Amino acid sequence: MSPSHVGDLTTPPSKRPCYPSLPPVLLRYAEYLRSVYANAPPTYPDKLSPEVNTPYIKLALVKGTKVSNLQDANELTRLTLEGDLDLIFQHKEEISMDKVFTLGNDSKLRLVIVEGAPGIGKSTFVLELCRQWPKMLSLQPFSLVVLLKLRDEEIRLAEGVGDLLPWEDHRTDHATLVEEVMKRHGKGVLFLFDGFDEFPAHLRQSPSASYVMKVLTGKALPRATVLVTSRPSARIHLQPLMLSDSIKLIEVVGFGEEQIQQFAANVFGPESETLASFNDYLNVNPVIRSMMYNPLNCSIITEVYSETSRSKKPVPHTQTQLYTEMALWRLSRYILVSGTN
Q: What range(s) does the NACHT domain occupy (predicted)?
């Protein structure tokens, strides 16, 4: 699992803002979305390791208060991919989850770009935003928070706002919902587009090629707020948008040494001999240790170490050996579970 620390971002009910009354159809849709997010499975449903009880996500602000041009932003992205938190925060400003949707000036925030390496926790982050929506003060201005996976074909092929408002509640008049959102030009709606790097390249390259791109660029639903997650490699198609003052670029930066130790202690036990031997293993394998800042890699490494230790097999010392062992172990587990001969 990619853990995510959110801290105490909630607001007591007595201090939450009061909202003007919304049409019943928006209220019902919001209730439906909240129930979906509350019951959503983990980001990695077939998890590799025991779940860490304390969620953890660390964010760095790239474009906002400290970075004013794209060349600097690209250079600072490289620092993040190297995974050294001490180095990262010498050049970037750490930002908490509850500050993601605020700007330091009077501009209206229209687009937040959240990037990071594969497995770093981007999808975990947006799911955590959805779950915090009823409680987090900075999310209270949004009457609707809609999470959409850009790998899904129905989202890729969306032709209008109705395709971006999925609703399985048959009591609802979907046409009325669409009409209300369009009448407001998207005001009060937060779209979370997860996985821009999984969006087809030919659709990314043209702002008019898909309805998703029209919403991203503000050509459709211009009063909506959009957050999009992406690997850095796909950001080139979003860079023209980053020149605006109403854009934030944020990175998910993964684990520091403290979080690596916390994760390993949760997997092996805080006082166990296995934890001590695992730390010794990391100390003599700097290549493997350098991979541990990535939460997904952290899960893979701890699980492979557990399996190789139990089976008395040699532990991996390179990335190739590590991923080979993971593939063999998961294939063996699949054969056992499925009963395949």
A: 110-236
Instruction: Please give the order of strands across the beta sheet that includes 189-194.
Output: 93-95, 59-63, 247-252, 111-115, 225-230, 189-194, 144-149
Decide: residue 93, CB within 10 A, 0-12 exposed, 13-18 middle, 19+ buried: middle
Give CA separation, 233 vs 12, 174, 197, 229, in Å: 40, 37, 7, 12
Closest C-alpha among 197, 182, 213, 179 to residue 118? 197
Helix 257-268 and helix 295-310: axis angle, to 10°? 40
Q: Are 60 and 85 in contact (CB under 8 A)?
A: no
Location of structure tokens 């937040």: 112
Ranges of residues in the chain whose predicted pLDDT is under 50: 1-19, 44-55, 64-68
Mutual angle of helices 24-38 and 122-132, in 10-degree steps: 130
How far apart are alpha carbons 149 and 160 in whole angstroms? 16
Could you tell me where in the chain the CATH 3.40.50.300 domains are found? 13-252
Strands 59-63 and 93-95 come out as antiparallel
- 218 in helix, strand or coil? coil
Handedness of CA 206, 113, 123, 86 (dihedral sign): positive
pTM of the full structure: 0.81
Cα angle for residues 103, 106, 109 (degrees, 5° grid): 45
CB 218 within 8 Å of CB 45: no
Distance of CA 115 to the CA centre of its chain: 8
Q: What is the CATH number of domain 13-252?
A: 3.40.50.300
| pLDDT, tens digit, 9 for 90 and up, residues 219-249 | 999 999 999 999 988 877 777 776 677 788 8
Beta strands at 144-149 and 225-230: parallel, antiparallel or unpaired: unpaired
- Please write the tens of the pLDDT for every residue from 319-340: 899 989 889 888 888 888 887 7
Token readout for 21 is 């009354």
